[in-house]
Amino acid sequence: MDYGITDLESDLSIGREIEFTFENERYSISRVSTGFSFTKYNEPSTMQNYTDHTELLGNAKIGNELLTDIFKERRIKIEVIF
């Protein structure tokens, strides 16, 4: 699936949840009661919480890389979109 930053922004703005793989690791962006949560699978210590999708897109990182840059460069593989 060809999925980039515009797709991510659109899907998050309507409350969708996304699971994807980056560098052989699986991640999820999920809706929670306080906004959105970004987490590496099976590693609760990596959880990053944001009040809305705009804050998530401006701040979420994997290591030192912004999530938006990773999506802009299409270096992810979409696993599931809810």
Tell me what the structure shows.
It is a single chain. The radius of gyration is 11 Å and the shape is globular. It has one domain. Helices cover 27% and strands 38% of the residues. It is built from three helices and seven strands. The strands form two sheets. The protein has a five-stranded antiparallel sheet with strand order 4-3-2-1-7. Strands 5-6 form a two-stranded antiparallel sheet. With 82 residues, the chain is α+β, with helices and mostly antiparallel strands.
User: Which strand order does the major sheet show?
Assistant: 4-3-2-1-7
Helix count, per DSSP?
3
Mean pLDDT: 95
Main sheet overview:
5 strands, antiparallel
Structural class: alpha+beta
> Span from first to last CA?
15 Å
Uncertain ranges? none
Order of helices and strands: HEEEEHEEHE
Short note summarizing the structure:
With 82 residues, the protein is of the alpha+beta class.
Brief descriptors of the model:
82 residues; alpha+beta; 5-stranded antiparallel sheet; two-stranded antiparallel ribbon; 7 strands; 38% strand
Question: Secondary-structure blueprint of this entry?
Answer:
Layout: H1 5-13, E1 18-22, E2 25-32, E3 35-40, E4 48-50, H2 53-59, E5 61-62, E6 65-66, H3 67-72, E7 77-81
Antiparallel strand pairs: 1-2, 1-7, 2-3, 3-4, 5-6
